[in-house]
Protein backbone atom coordinates (compact mmCIF):
# COMPACT_ATOMS: atom_id res chain seq x y z
CA UNK A 1 0.00 0.00 0.00
CA UNK A 2 1.47 3.32 -1.02
CA UNK A 3 1.29 6.09 1.64
CA UNK A 4 -0.41 8.37 -0.88
CA UNK A 5 -3.35 5.98 -1.08
CA UNK A 6 -3.42 5.28 2.67
CA UNK A 7 -6.87 4.72 4.13
CA UNK A 8 -8.34 3.38 7.35
CA UNK A 9 -8.13 -0.44 7.22
CA UNK A 10 -11.18 -2.65 6.98
CA UNK A 11 -11.65 -6.00 8.72
CA UNK A 12 -11.19 -7.67 5.34
CA UNK A 13 -7.66 -6.21 5.18
CA UNK A 14 -6.25 -8.89 7.50
CA UNK A 15 -3.71 -10.13 4.99
CA UNK A 16 -0.34 -9.77 6.69
CA UNK A 17 0.80 -11.30 10.00
CA UNK A 18 3.92 -11.02 12.08
CA UNK A 19 4.99 -11.83 15.63
CA UNK A 20 6.44 -9.05 17.74
CA UNK A 21 8.51 -9.32 20.90
CA UNK A 22 5.42 -9.89 23.01
CA UNK A 23 4.87 -13.13 21.08
CA UNK A 24 1.43 -12.02 19.93
CA UNK A 25 0.46 -12.42 16.27
CA UNK A 26 -0.35 -9.12 14.67
CA UNK A 27 -2.09 -8.49 11.38
CA UNK A 28 -3.34 -5.54 9.41
CA UNK A 29 -6.83 -5.47 10.80
CA UNK A 30 -9.75 -3.31 11.74
CA UNK A 31 -9.44 0.13 13.28
CA UNK A 32 -11.12 -1.07 16.47
CA UNK A 33 -8.72 -3.99 16.87
CA UNK A 34 -5.69 -1.73 16.96
CA UNK A 35 -7.27 1.21 18.75
CA UNK A 36 -5.93 3.76 16.31
CA UNK A 37 -2.79 1.95 15.05
CA UNK A 38 -3.12 2.21 11.29
CA UNK A 39 -1.76 -0.02 8.53
CA UNK A 40 1.09 2.34 7.75
CA UNK A 41 2.34 2.12 11.32
CA UNK A 42 2.27 -1.67 11.17
CA UNK A 43 4.11 -1.70 7.86
CA UNK A 44 6.78 0.56 9.32
CA UNK A 45 7.12 -1.80 12.26
CA UNK A 46 7.56 -4.73 9.88
CA UNK A 47 10.28 -2.80 8.08
CA UNK A 48 12.05 -2.14 11.38
CA UNK A 49 11.97 -5.83 12.26
CA UNK A 50 13.21 -6.77 8.80
CA UNK A 51 16.34 -4.71 9.35
CA UNK A 52 17.03 -6.20 12.76
CA UNK A 53 15.54 -3.48 14.92
CA UNK A 54 13.78 -4.25 18.16
CA UNK A 55 10.04 -4.07 18.05
CA UNK A 56 8.22 -1.52 20.15
CA UNK A 57 4.88 -2.35 18.60
CA UNK A 58 3.71 -4.51 21.48
CA UNK A 59 3.64 -1.43 23.70
CA UNK A 60 1.03 0.08 21.35
CA UNK A 61 -0.93 -3.08 20.57
CA UNK A 62 -4.23 -3.24 22.41
CA UNK A 63 -6.46 -6.27 21.98
CA UNK A 64 -10.23 -6.23 22.25
CA UNK A 65 -9.98 -7.96 25.62
CA UNK A 66 -7.49 -5.40 26.91
CA UNK A 67 -9.76 -2.57 25.77
CA UNK A 68 -12.64 -4.13 27.69
CA UNK A 69 -10.45 -4.49 30.81
CA UNK A 70 -9.31 -0.89 30.48
CA UNK A 71 -12.86 0.41 30.22
CA UNK A 72 -13.92 -1.73 33.17
CA UNK A 73 -11.05 -0.44 35.33
CA UNK A 74 -11.82 3.17 34.45
CA UNK A 75 -15.46 2.54 35.34
CA UNK A 76 -14.45 0.99 38.68
CA UNK A 77 -12.11 3.88 39.45
CA UNK A 78 -14.91 6.34 38.73
CA UNK A 79 -17.27 4.35 40.96
CA UNK A 80 -14.69 4.49 43.76
CA UNK A 81 -14.39 8.28 43.35
CA UNK A 82 -18.18 8.64 43.33
CA UNK A 83 -18.44 6.54 46.48
CA UNK A 84 -15.94 8.74 48.31
CA UNK A 85 -17.70 11.89 47.08
CA UNK A 86 -21.06 10.56 48.31
CA UNK A 87 -19.58 9.64 51.70
CA UNK A 88 -18.14 13.13 52.03
CA UNK A 89 -21.50 14.73 51.27
CA UNK A 90 -23.14 12.60 54.00
CA UNK A 91 -20.38 13.39 56.49
CA UNK A 92 -20.64 17.12 55.77
CA UNK A 93 -24.41 17.01 56.30
CA UNK A 94 -23.87 15.25 59.64
CA UNK A 95 -21.24 17.84 60.59
CA UNK A 96 -23.59 20.75 59.85
CA UNK A 97 -26.40 19.11 61.79
CA UNK A 98 -24.11 18.54 64.77
CA UNK A 99 -22.93 22.16 64.75
CA UNK A 100 -26.07 24.10 63.90
CA UNK A 101 -28.80 21.89 65.38
CA UNK A 102 -27.12 20.51 68.48
CA UNK A 103 -24.17 22.86 69.01
CA UNK A 104 -21.85 19.84 69.24
CA UNK A 105 -18.55 21.39 68.29
CA UNK A 106 -16.50 18.28 69.03
CA UNK A 107 -18.73 16.11 66.83
CA UNK A 108 -18.42 18.74 64.10
CA UNK A 109 -14.62 18.48 64.28
CA UNK A 110 -14.72 14.67 64.26
CA UNK A 111 -16.85 14.64 61.13
CA UNK A 112 -14.54 17.05 59.33
CA UNK A 113 -11.57 14.90 60.32
CA UNK A 114 -13.41 11.91 58.87
CA UNK A 115 -13.90 13.80 55.60
CA UNK A 116 -10.24 14.82 55.55
CA UNK A 117 -9.10 11.24 56.16
CA UNK A 118 -11.12 9.98 53.20
CA UNK A 119 -9.38 12.49 50.96
CA UNK A 120 -5.93 11.70 52.35
CA UNK A 121 -6.54 8.03 51.58
CA UNK A 122 -7.87 8.67 48.07
CA UNK A 123 -4.70 7.51 46.22
CA UNK A 124 -4.88 4.14 48.02
CA UNK A 125 -8.60 3.90 47.36
CA UNK A 126 -8.25 4.14 43.58
CA UNK A 127 -4.84 2.42 43.27
CA UNK A 128 -6.20 -1.13 42.67
CA UNK A 129 -8.08 0.06 39.59
CA UNK A 130 -5.15 1.96 38.07
CA UNK A 131 -2.81 -1.00 37.70
CA UNK A 132 -2.45 -1.81 34.02
CA UNK A 133 -4.65 1.11 33.00
CA UNK A 134 -3.47 2.88 29.79
CA UNK A 135 -1.30 5.95 30.26
CA UNK A 136 -3.56 9.00 30.12
CA UNK A 137 -6.60 7.87 32.16
CA UNK A 138 -4.50 6.21 34.84
CA UNK A 139 -2.06 9.10 35.06
CA UNK A 140 -4.83 11.71 35.25
CA UNK A 141 -6.76 9.89 37.98
CA UNK A 142 -3.58 9.15 39.95
CA UNK A 143 -2.42 12.77 39.71
CA UNK A 144 -5.79 14.15 40.85
CA UNK A 145 -6.06 11.68 43.73
CA UNK A 146 -2.61 12.70 44.94
CA UNK A 147 -3.52 16.38 44.68
CA UNK A 148 -6.73 15.92 46.70
CA UNK A 149 -4.72 13.92 49.24
CA UNK A 150 -1.98 16.56 49.45
CA UNK A 151 -4.45 19.35 50.18
CA UNK A 152 -6.21 17.23 52.80
CA UNK A 153 -2.88 16.44 54.46
CA UNK A 154 -2.08 20.15 54.65
CA UNK A 155 -5.43 20.88 56.31
CA UNK A 156 -4.82 18.01 58.74
CA UNK A 157 -1.36 19.26 59.65
CA UNK A 158 -2.77 22.74 60.30
CA UNK A 159 -5.41 21.12 62.53
CA UNK A 160 -7.88 23.65 61.18
CA UNK A 161 -11.60 22.93 60.92
CA UNK A 162 -11.80 25.96 58.64
CA UNK A 163 -9.46 24.41 56.07
CA UNK A 164 -11.00 20.96 56.50
CA UNK A 165 -14.48 22.30 55.82
CA UNK A 166 -13.21 24.17 52.76
CA UNK A 167 -11.64 21.11 51.13
CA UNK A 168 -13.14 20.49 47.64
CA UNK A 169 -14.81 23.91 47.56
CA UNK A 170 -13.27 26.82 45.59
CA UNK A 171 -13.71 30.40 46.77
CA UNK A 172 -16.44 31.05 44.19
CA UNK A 173 -18.44 27.93 45.10
CA UNK A 174 -22.22 28.40 45.25
CA UNK A 175 -24.56 26.22 47.29
CA UNK A 176 -26.04 23.45 45.15
CA UNK A 177 -23.09 23.23 42.76
CA UNK A 178 -20.89 20.17 42.51
CA UNK A 179 -17.64 20.18 44.42
CA UNK A 180 -14.18 19.63 42.93
CA UNK A 181 -14.18 15.85 43.39
CA UNK A 182 -17.61 15.49 41.79
CA UNK A 183 -16.61 17.73 38.89
CA UNK A 184 -13.40 15.76 38.33
CA UNK A 185 -15.31 12.48 38.32
CA UNK A 186 -17.73 13.83 35.71
CA UNK A 187 -14.85 15.01 33.50
CA UNK A 188 -13.10 11.64 33.64
CA UNK A 189 -16.29 9.79 32.76
CA UNK A 190 -17.04 12.10 29.83
CA UNK A 191 -13.46 12.09 28.57
CA UNK A 192 -12.56 8.41 28.78
CA UNK A 193 -15.61 6.17 29.01
CA UNK A 194 -16.93 7.59 25.74
CA UNK A 195 -13.63 7.19 23.91
CA UNK A 196 -12.12 3.92 25.17
Write a structural description:
- It is a single chain.
- The chain is mainly alpha-helical.
- Helix content is 62%, strand content 3%.
- Strands 1-2 form a two-stranded antiparallel ribbon.
- It is elongated, with a radius of gyration of 24 Å.
Write the layout of secondary structure elements.
Elements: E1 17-19, E2 25-27, H1 31-34, H2 39-50, H3 64-100, H4 105-120, H5 122-130, H6 135-158, H7 161-166, H8 180-193
Antiparallel strand pairs: 1-2
Helix pairs in contact: 3-4, 3-5, 3-8, 4-6, 5-6, 6-8
Give the tags.
62% helix, 8 helices, disordered N terminus, two-stranded antiparallel ribbon, mainly alpha
Helix percent band: 55-70%
C-alpha end-to-end distance? 28 Å
- Helical segment count: 8
Number-wise, the strands total 2
Beta-strand fraction estimate: under 5%
Biggest β-sheet description: 2 strands, antiparallel
User: Which parts are unreliable, with pLDDT below 50 for 5 consecutive residues or more?
Assistant: 1-43, 54-68
The spatial strand order of the largest sheet comes to 1-2
Summarize the structure.
The chain is mainly alpha-helical. It is built from 8 helices and 2 strands, in the order ββαααααααα.
